[in-house]
Amino acid sequence: MKATLTKIEKRPSRYGGFFFYAFFKADNGKTYYTCLYPKMRNYVHWKPYMKEGTKLKNLRVKKGRLLDADSPIEEVN
């Protein structure tokens, strides 16, 4: 799936530090989100793309509106 990153919210984590909610608008018009935690291994894949307006592809839906943070993301040119 392709989607555009529309908003990033930084929140305190109950495990220490902070995490991010990343919100997306997909090409099909639906909205999705994912949770990104800097202490998790997959965060290094997301960090270069964490700018509002970035369009990504290869996003997978985990459940409902939640995207799988382990998706093999790539930027759409």
Helix-strand layout with pairing:
Layout lengths: L2 E10 L5 E9 L4 E6 L6 H4 L8 E3 L3 E3 L2 E2 L6 E2 L2
Antiparallel strand pairs: 1-2, 1-4, 2-3, 4-7, 5-6
What does the model show?
- By secondary structure, the protein is mainly beta.
- The protein has one domain (3-75).
- Helices cover 5% and strands 45% of the residues.
- It is built from 1 helix and 7 strands.
- The chain has one helix spanning 43-46; strands at 3-12, 18-26, 31-36, 55-57, 61-63, 66-67, 74-75.
- The strands form 2 sheets. A 5-stranded antiparallel β-sheet has the order 3-2-1-4-7, with no helix packed on it. Strands 5-6 form a two-stranded antiparallel ribbon.
- The longest helix is centred in the middle third of the chain and has 4 residues, at 43-46.
- The radius of gyration is 12 Å and the shape is globular.
Number of helices: 1
Mean pLDDT across all residues, rounded? 96
What order do the helices and strands follow?
Answer: EEEHEEEE
Rg on CA atoms, Å: 12 Å
Number of strands: 7
Shape: globular
Alpha-carbon distance between the termini? 15 Å
Structural class: mainly beta
| Beta fraction | over 45%
Helicity range of the residues?
under 10%
Unreliable stretches (pLDDT < 50, length at least 5) are none
**Order of strands in the sheet with the most strands?**
3-2-1-4-7
How many discrete domains? 1
Largest sheet: 5 strands, antiparallel
Supply database-style keywords.
1 helix, 45% strand, mainly beta, 77 residues, two-stranded antiparallel ribbon
Summarize the model shown.
The chain has one helix spanning 43-46; strands at 3-12, 18-26, 31-36, 55-57, 61-63, 66-67, 74-75.
